[in-house]
Amino acid sequence: MNTSPKNVESIFNPPPVHMVGDGFRVHNFIPGIPQLSMQRMDPFIMLDYNSRYYFPPTDNPRGVGVHPHRGFETVTIAYHGRIAHHDSHGHSGTIGEGEVQWMTAAGGVLHKEYHEREFSKLGGDFQMVQLWVNLPAANKMDKPSYQAITRDNIRQITLDNVRIELIAGRFREWTGPAKTHSEINMANVMMNADAELALEYPSTFNTCLLVIEGEITINDTHKAVANQLVLMKNDGESFVLKAQKNSIVLVLSAEPIKEPIAAHGPFVMNSRAELIQAFEDFQDGKFGALED
Ligand code: MN
Model's pTM, two decimal places? Predict the structure, then answer.
């Protein structure tokens, strides 16, 4: 296949932090930055990034209390620290360092998300990403489900001076473990200083890079450092990353769903009527029950 270069559109500094509950100190890139709207980044409709931050010890785990979701998936990626969650369907678990929880909220869940108890007691550095991935209209009211992407099932690919942890989609001949409802590529790329990696995605796919650690150049034209987000153009297929230091880069590239988006708070549907229905169902207790 003949490919043409995919160029950098913009590089964004992390926006000012805000707290989600008392446990998540996040920079909201999507949709907070006007150039990173839900429509532009479709199907990535929300990206909150807790850059590396020290939380002191506490006996009362910090976090966010019971809240609903409907119409999309939440993908939580832990880099430092551990996150515990409980939901209204009796499901609970812990997301450890290097692990990912892919929660398909779909028709609706109530859940709460906290720093894991032992991590809270000791305190420590906390760094994580929460992404919301939109669902096609046909799947918005599916039964909720979970995929735990752990050290055991994440796809590890080792190349010269580069290690890839493939979460979803493809890299060359490899595929990631996450089952998705549209074509989504998601990977953490660990590069040693001076390593180089060529990546290729269809030009129509919305593509961005979040630098978790280190410093990289993209196509030899742009430099990005830790905590910056690189938005790629939809002009071509291939681009090259070079690491100036040991670096970790979260790579996201997905096919846009191209359906209408009606979003309000924790609900992302296709129409205003469906949003109102979501609020009514929530008020009527149809998302189940969960104690705070
Ligand atoms: Mn949530």
Answer: 0.98
